[in-house]
Amino acid sequence: MLRQTSHVTFRFYARLNDFLSADHQQMDFQQPFCGKVSVKDLIEATGVPHTEIGLILLNHHAIDFNYHLHDNDHISVYPPFCQLDISEFSRNQPLPLSDIKFVVDTHMGKLARYLRLLGFDTLYQNNYTDPELATISATENRILLTRDRGLLKHSIIKYAYFVRTTGSHNQLQEIISQFDLKLLFKPFSRCIHCNGALIKVDKKLIAAQLQTKTKRFYQHFKQCRNCQHIYWQGSHYYKILNLITSLEN
Q1: pTM for this one?
Q2: Listed residue (188, 196, 193, 201) closest to 233, CA to CA
Q3: d(CA 11, CA 83)
Q4: What is the pLDDT of residues 31-88, one digit of tens each?
Q5: Among residues 192, 191, 165, which one has the least CA distance to residue 178?
Q6: Of the four listed, 4, 10, 155, 223, which is most buried by Cβ atoms within 10 Å?
């Protein structure tokens, strides 16, 4: 016996259209389904990850991801509202994070280094599996940054963002804008190699580890609590200052 095909009408707003085919962007369109289907599953079938969604309306009333669709439902889907508190209405947008922390997908190592340079707690390993990334994000309330739509569909993930741009510098600018990070910069406070916290260290304690010219010309140093990597204000320091200045403007 064949199941009867039903249809729901979708309309996606703002940046959610980035995930849709050209013939579905900025307009109402019908999506077929059979049997008992949640609105979350059908939304993700269109290509839009649940982590990108802040509000779902059924005939102007908010619903959650578990709502089971009916024939001829009309569904409006919105991204998170960064500047508005809609917690009273939205059943999908998670509570704002009091502490911004990231975990970065394996293909964006340079972005992770940039975020660490700016002082953001950022986990990254080039051998993380998708389940590991999902688990880290979910258990530690870290914002998962990725360009993998499939990864964002892991049901346990609450905080994540699909990075639209390519190129690490463009991606950094995108993340700063998306999460309004300009006032949260704490440059030179984290190790770019392991994400550990940097602390001031007496030159006498690390002198044996320094090269001759470094020992001669520099007096102030920091060291990573975790991996013991040593930092000082060499030429790279001023390049980073220029980068920060460009990001703040």
Answers
A1: 0.88
A2: 188
A3: 22
A4: 999 999 999 999 999 999 999 999 999 988 999 999 999 999 999 999 987 555 555 5
A5: 165
A6: 10
